[in-house]
Amino acid sequence: MGDVRIIAGHAVYVCAQEGPSLADDHGLSGLIGDLYGAGAGIAAIPLARLGPDFLRLGTGVAGHVLQKLVNYRFQVAILGDVADAVEKSEPLRDFVRESNRGTTVWFLDDLPTLEARLAAREP
User: Fold this and answer.
1) DSSP code of 56?
2) 3, 77, 86, 101: most buried by Cβ count inside 10 Å?
3) How far apart are CA 37 and CA 114, in angstroms?
4) Residue-wise pLDDT tens digits, 34-72
5) Are 123 and 94 spatial neighbours (Cβ–Cβ below 8 Å)?
6) Rounded to whole angstroms, how far apart are CA atoms 98 and 69?
7) Are 112 and 2 within 8 A, CB to CB?
8) Nearest to 41, CA basis, from 80, 68, 76, 89
């Protein structure tokens, strides 16, 4: 579960810090339903809700989760510290850097960082 917050003029569905994994099809489909039901265009997802394989690009978990959300036209903010994982994986470092340059998927430390990023662009 989660709640909708208006952050810098944007409806953001903020997923609860704890709960079932959002990395499997059941959890992901539930999240998409919640996003539509809430009228939110942005999903703020705690990294912990995506499971240990999310940052291991070879598993395909990140690709599956992000592609599904993007296909449904949602913007995604993954919230949490990815520094250790990025330091250990050049492909992940490149993926995070390129994602953060765009507008669809961001890897950010926390909600205040998301708020600052959203405030820098128009709603």
Assistant:
1) -
2) 77
3) 22
4) 999 999 999 999 999 999 999 999 999 999 999 999 999
5) no
6) 17
7) no
8) 76
Strand segments, DSSP code E, in the chain are 2-7, 10-15, 42-46, 75-79, 105-108
Q: How far lies 108's CA from each of 1, 38, 45, 82, in Å? A: 20, 22, 10, 8
**pLDDT (mean) for 109-122:** 93
What is the chain's mean pLDDT, rounded? 95
Mean pLDDT of 73-95: 97
> Can you tell me which residue has the tokens 């960082």?
113
- CATH number corresponding to 2-113: 3.30.750
Indicate the pTM of the whole model.
0.94
- The CA distance from 43 to 31, in Å, is 9
